[in-house]
Amino acid sequence: MPQLKALARTLGPKGLMPNVKSGTLVKPDVLIESVKQSKQGLIEYRVTEDGTIMNKIGMRSFTEEDLLRNSEALINSVASKRPADIKGRFFNKGIIKTSMGPALKIDLSKF
How do the domains of the chain map onto residue ranges? Predict the structure, then answer.
């Protein structure tokens, strides 16, 4: 981390500064394990204070089946982390959109 101090003013505003919480900065003894997890398809997502999950599920070059599989993997991953004391519906609504396109509502009733 001390070596990155000189680059902090450049990397920080762009959101590229590595940190321990996001998993972009690991100790040498854990490096091999974190690379294995990344290659196995580790799903990493963040939740805002109001419960919104924003995550990238694909790119323009992906096929329709790949996008569907990635979105289902994300939804199943979030649903598996559901606390036991929460009753009723876990997801209120689902919206999927491109970075510059219109939003599309998705049906989350099966999750």
Answer: 62-111
